């Protein structure tokens, strides 16, 4: 049976903390667009209801965008900032956590197309002596096994000392610490592997820290430079960034929150500022719902990878968790039988995902500014029985608004990837 691991950096919660951070307000972001008005056709009523339910369950705010043949709809519920009560807006940037992995896998597949590496190379070839200790052996692990989480390499985020510093009581003291990829891998090497390479599946953030290091060894550039040059700039993802060690968020953005403590003593604290080097190539990126939808549609359309590379990326292994994992991308069947492809991501005060049908006919990006389940919104976005249009149906202005914004999705084209 596959061993379950957190799908991204776990939120800063767990240990009770006596002193809460001061909630810091930010200036209100500019208005999203003039097109942000109610969904008068009622096509996204179920999705809006699901967003409202996430907020009713305790999340400060939720934001989603659906792109399909009708155009682009953006809906929100709750607030981006609990002090100013500013609503969540379409241009808001947020940390996307493990969705970073899909960008990293794309770059490695491009490098294979250029014959600068082979995904079946042993990790040892590119990172000699790095994957060693307590049964780990980089000579027996391939780059491909890093990307589909069949390497067996221990997940650094499962280390108790790391958890205490990053997720629990030590968060307040260590939130601004800079972590190097070598440090993260060294922590993982203090433990035995989860299993022999290729014999099972287990999600490990260490895999993608190593994948980022392989990119750097193969190119001589930082992995961030390669992601920006090959993916971000060609696709025109102007709101997508790889922040490195910068602890603040680029504007416009809301705040990120976690509830620390238990029961009546639990307090909502602001965890917006954190040094994202703690995640590095496993989950440091910042983006928006617009950019995430544009990226995934371009990827599945074949604008970033050749047909052969896409077949490799979409070749999956079972996770033991009801879905399957490819190379930096996962697939699952929803309750209505719709198969979707994409990735989710969790990091302090932020849970995100972007999923699409294989043909790209419908894509959906989502973010909630705390740790909260996202399945209900995903189900509504792809499986909701959307009623026929009726006057005033589906108006969601009281919940943060929505926008038809028709026609933009079709114009998202890329002329080159290098």
Automatic annotation (TrEMBL):
Residues 405-418 have a biased composition (Basic and acidic residues). GO terms for molecular function: hydrolase activity. Residues 383-418 are annotated as: Disordered. Pfam families: Beta-lactamase. It comes from the Bacteria. Residues 384-393 have a biased composition (Low complexity). Keywords: Hydrolase, Signal. Residues 51-375 form the Beta-lactamase-related domain. This is Serine hydrolase domain-containing protein. It comes from Streptomyces glaucosporus.
């Amino acid at each position: 049976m596959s061993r379950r691991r957190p799908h991204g950096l776990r939120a800063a919660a767990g240990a009770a903390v006596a002193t809460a951070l001061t909630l810091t307000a930010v200036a209100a972001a500019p208005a999203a667009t003039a097109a942000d008005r109610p969904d008068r056709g009622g096509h996204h009523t179920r999705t809006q209801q699901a967003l409202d339910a996430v907020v009713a369950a305790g999340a400060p705010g939720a934001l989603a965008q659906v792109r399909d043949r009708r155009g682009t709809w953006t809906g929100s519920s709750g607030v981006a900032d609990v002090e100013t009560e500013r609503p969540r807006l379409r241009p808001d940037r947020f940390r996307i956590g493990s969705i970073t992995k899909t960008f990293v896998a794309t770059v490695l597949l491009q490098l294979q197309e250029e014959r600068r590496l082979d995904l079946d190379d042993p990790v040892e070839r590119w990172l000699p002596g790095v994957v060693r200790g307590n049964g780990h052996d980089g000579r027996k692990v391939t780059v491909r096994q890093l990307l589909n989480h069949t390497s067996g390499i221990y997940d650094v985020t499962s280390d108790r000392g790391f958890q205490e510093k990053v997720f629990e009581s030590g968060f307040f003291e260590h939130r601004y610490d800079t972590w190097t990829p070598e440090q993260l891998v060294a922590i993982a090497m203090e433990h035995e592997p989860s299993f022999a390479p290729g014999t099972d599946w287990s999600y490990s953030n260490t895999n993608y820290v190593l994948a980022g290091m392989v990119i750097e060894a193969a190119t001589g550039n930082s992995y961030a430079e390669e992601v920006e040059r090959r993916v971000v700039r060609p696709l025109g993802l102007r709101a997508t960034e790889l922040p490195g060690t910068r602890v603040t968020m680029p504007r416009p953005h809301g705040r990120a929150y976690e509830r620390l403590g238990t029961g009546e003593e639990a307090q909502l604290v602001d965890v917006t500022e954190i040094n994202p080097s703690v995640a590095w190539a496993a989950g440091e990126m910042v983006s928006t719902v617009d950019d995430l939808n544009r990226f995934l549609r371009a990827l599945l359309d074949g604008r970033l990878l050749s047909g052969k590379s896409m077949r490799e990326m979409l070749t999956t292994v079972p996770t033991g968790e009801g879905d399957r994992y490819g190379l930096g991308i996962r697939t699952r069947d929803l309750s209505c039988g719709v198969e979707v492809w994409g990735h989710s991501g969790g990091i302090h005060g932020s849970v995100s995902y972007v999923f699409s049908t294989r043909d790209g006919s419908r894509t959906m990006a989502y973010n909630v500014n705390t740790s909260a389940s996202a399945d209900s919104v995903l189900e509504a976005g792809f499986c909701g029985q959307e009623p026929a249009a009726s006057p005033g149906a589906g108006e969601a202005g009281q919940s943060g608004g929505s926008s038809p914004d028709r026609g933009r999705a079709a114009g998202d084209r890329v002329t080159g990837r290098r």
